[in-house]
Amino acid sequence: MKNNTSRIADFSQLVENLKETGNKKNVAIVWAEDSHTLEAVEMAYEAGFANPILVCSQQTAEKYEGKYEILLADSPQDASEKAVALVREGRADALMKGFVNTDVLLRAILDKEKGILPKGSVLTHITAAKLPTYPKLLFFTDPAVIPHPTQEQRMAQIRYVTDFCHAFHIEQPKISLIHCSEKPDGKHFPYTEGYLELKKMAADGAFGNCIVDGPLDLKTSCSAEALADKKIDSPIEGEADAVIFPDIEAGNVFYKTITLFAAAETAAVLQGTQVPVVLASRGDTVTSKFYSMALATIISKSNK
Amino acid sequence: MKNNTSRIADFSQLVENLKETGNKKNVAIVWAEDSHTLEAVEMAYEAGFANPILVCSQQTAEKYEGKYEILLADSPQDASEKAVALVREGRADALMKGFVNTDVLLRAILDKEKGILPKGSVLTHITAAKLPTYPKLLFFTDPAVIPHPTQEQRMAQIRYVTDFCHAFHIEQPKISLIHCSEKPDGKHFPYTEGYLELKKMAADGAFGNCIVDGPLDLKTSCSAEALADKKIDSPIEGEADAVIFPDIEAGNVFYKTITLFAAAETAAVLQGTQVPVVLASRGDTVTSKFYSMALATIISKSNK
User: Fold this and answer.
1) Are A283 and B229 a contacting pair at CB < 8 A?
2) B186 vs A107, B190, B196, B268, CA distance in Å?
3) A20, A117, A207, B221 - which has most CB atoms within 10 Å?
4) Do the Cβ atoms of A188 and B229 come within 8 Å?
5) What would be the CATH architecture of the domain defined by B8-121+273-303?
6) Where does the sequence pass through the membrane (chains A, B) (predicted)?
7) Tens digits of residue pLDDT in A227-272
C-alpha cells in the first residue's frame, strides 16, 4: 500500500491508486444512450472504481439489465432530473453526461429547488492534462464555464484546484496565475492586480497548503529554463502543478491546443456541485471519458 | 522557377523561395551585441536573402568590418534611433531587434516625429507557426501587442494576415475568428457580434481574396473531424491558414503552448510599421530568429 501516498503523476497511476485503495463510487450516467459513453462506463466498471447507475431508455435497459443498476427515463430532460434526484437522495456520488445536451443537464443541476448547486457555491470546470512533454499532470481552470472570473470565483478556483492536487498526493501544489506578462497591469488587465492579493492570501494560508504566484506567463510557469532566461524569481520554479487562466478564452485555447496539437490526454469535471459532474463532449475520446470518471471518483467527497 | 508560385508550406520552403526568386533585403540589426542574434544574422547572410547592416558598438564593428555594413552606435537607445533613421532614409527594408529592450526599440519606432509608424496605422504582431501535427503553416495574431483589439484593429489584423498568406502564395486564405464557442454571445463577448460583421465584409471583398469565418473555436478551425463532430458548416473546413485571437491573453497562451508543448517552429514580425520589425526575444531560438528574418524579407514591400 505504499504507493497510496506517493504523488499520482499520470492517469494510469490514478487508476492504479483507485484499485489499490478500493475507492469505488456510484456514478449516475445521464441518458446513457451513446456507444462512446457506454464504452467508457464499461472500462470504469471493469477497472472496479465505478458502480454505474444507467439512467436510460427501455431499449438500453434491456441490454444492461442484471449488469448495472438501471433507472428508466423517457427523455434526456427526464434523465437529467432523475439523475440529479439520485444525488440529492445520496444514491449517486458523481454524475456523468451521456447523450444529452449540456444545457439540458445544466438546467437540472442548477434548478434552485431541485438542483445540486449549493447556494453561493461557485460552479467551475477543472481539467487534468497529461502532456507527453511535461513530467507530471497539469491541472487547469477554466476552459468552459466562467467567462470572466471575478476575484471571488478565482478564489474558489484556487481552492478546488488545491483540493484536486491534495487528492493526487501533491502535498504543496504550485499554482500559477496566468497572464501574458510577468508585470501586473491594472489598466488593461485589472485581474493582474487581483493576482497580487491572491498571492498574499495564499501565503497567509487562506487556501491551505499550496504555493500561489503570478502574474506569470504559461512558459515561465511550466519551464524552469524560460524562467531563468527571463531572470525571474518565482516559487513556482517553472514546475506548475496547476494554472489558473485569466478567462474562458485563454483557457479554451489552451484546452483545444493541447488536445489538438500536443497529444494531451485529459480528464475533466465540474466542481461546485454537491458531487463532481463529468461533462464530456461528443468530441472527447472514450479514454478521456474513462479518465474523467476516475477523476470524479477520486475527488468525490460524497459518502465519506 | 515553377516552385515560385506554389504554396509555401513550411520554413524550409520559405528560405528556398527567397533563394530562387533572388529576394534580398537590407536588414538593420539594432544593437547587434548578442551571439544568438549574430548567429541568426550569419545564417540569413549565408542563405543570401539578407544584407545585414549592423548598428553596433565599436567592439562588434571591429569583428565584422568588411563582411557586413556597419553603423556605429553608443548605446541601445542610440542604436534604436539610428536604425529607425535608416528606414526613413530608405536604406533598411526591415529591422531586427538585437540586445536591446523591447520598450527602448519601440519608443524609437513609435516616435511621432522621427518614428516609422505611419499616422493611423495599426501596430500588431503576426506569427507564422509550423506545427509537426498540422500540414501547413498557421498564421496568427496577436500574442504580444494589442491587449483587446477594437473592431478597426481586427480589420487591420485580417488585412495583414491576408497579405502574408498571399506572399506565401496562398491564393484564398481561410481565416478563422476565434472564440470558445461557435455561438456569438454579445452579452459576455461583444466582439463575437463584431465577428459577424467582419465575415460579411470579407464576403463583400473588403479584405481582398480571402475567406473569413467565425466565431469558431480553435479545434473546429483546425480539425475537419472536430467540425464534422459538432455538425457545423464552415467555409474554413477545419483547415485554417490563419487564426485571429480575441485578445492578447488567448494569443499569448497559444504562442507559449505550441512552442513549449507542441514542438512548434515559429517566426514573427511586427506589422503596421513602414517596414517589418523582428522583435525576437531572448528566449527564442536562433532558428526562430533566422526564420523571422526570412519572414521579414518576404513581406517587406520596401524598395519594390
Assistant:
1) yes
2) 21, 4, 11, 31
3) B221
4) no
5) 3-Layer(aba) Sandwich (3.40)
6) none
7) 998 889 999 999 999 999 999 999 999 999 999 999 999 999 999 9
